[in-house]
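Give me structure tokens for this 172-residue protein.
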Amino acid sequence: MKRIWLLLFGFIFFTSASFANDTLKVYAVIIKGDTFPAKYLRTVFITDFRPFKDYEQQRLYKNLVSDVAIVYPYAKRTASLLNQIKNELTNCHTRKERRQYLKSKEDELNKQFKYQLVNMTTHQGRILILLINRETGNSCYDVIKEFKGGLKTFAYNLMMSTYDDDLNMKRK
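Here you go.
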């Protein structure tokens, strides 16, 4: 009988001791009479730099961002000019009028943009081709073929691909 009392006493003692330490103290916030548990999180600093594996990747990313910033206005301008030219070509009824209009537009655009486009790097040219494709929905090859004809477009694409394999106007 003593063993049972000792066992019972030990059980009550040890279980009551374990219940005494089962409470967690938590910060609380009282809102409109209700108590809500609150947890304070450590401060996290967010920076605008992306984590890169090495310096080379970071340098390539920064070059890409700066090249896109240079080329993107030209792609937007190209898309709006193409829409404008297509709308005005509907007014041209003969082939001669069409050619004269396209020649005058080409001369005007050469005066505006030739210097900037000639001074672009090949990387910027690649980006410009991709952005024109994104803005217009057509590849540069299709756009030039529509206005210049198939033979000149083929020659331009051949010249660009011999200069650099990545400068492919048919790329989508």
